[in-house]
C-alpha cells in the first residue's frame, strides 16, 4: 500500500523545510507550498494524490482558516490539520465548525 502525499503549507521557509524533512525521514511523500494560493494550485493538479494538508494558521495574504474554508468547499473529504504557535480555544472551535 502506498502512502498518500502530505501537503505542507507554511510561509516560514525554515519551518517549512524542517516539517518536510521530518515527514520525509518518517517515510511520507511530501509536497510543499509557501502560501495558500500555491497550495490550492497544487491540489488542483490531477496528478497530485494529496491525502492530508498540514497548514499554518498565521500566513498572509490567505491565512490558514481561509485556506481551510477553500479546501473544504472544493475537497470536502480531504483532512486538514491546522497548526499554530498562537492558538486559542475560540479559534480552535471556529476551525472545527
TL;DR of this structure?
With 97 residues, the chain is of the alpha/beta class. It has helices spanning 13-25, 36-44, 64-74, 89-96; strands at residues 5-9, 30-33, 50-56, 80-83. The chain has a four-stranded parallel β-sheet, with helices on both faces.
Trace the largest sheet across and list its strands: 2-1-3-4
Helix/strand structural class: alpha/beta
The percentage of residues in β strands lies in: 15-25%
Provide the helix percentage.
40-55%
- Globally, the shape reads globular
Describe this protein with a few key phrases:
globular; 42% helix; 97 residues; alpha/beta; four-stranded parallel beta sheet; 4 helices
Secondary structure elements and pairings:
Layout: E1 5-9, H1 13-25, E2 30-33, H2 36-44, E3 50-56, H3 64-74, E4 80-83, H4 89-96
Parallel strand pairs: 1-2, 1-3, 3-4
Helix pairs in contact: 2-3
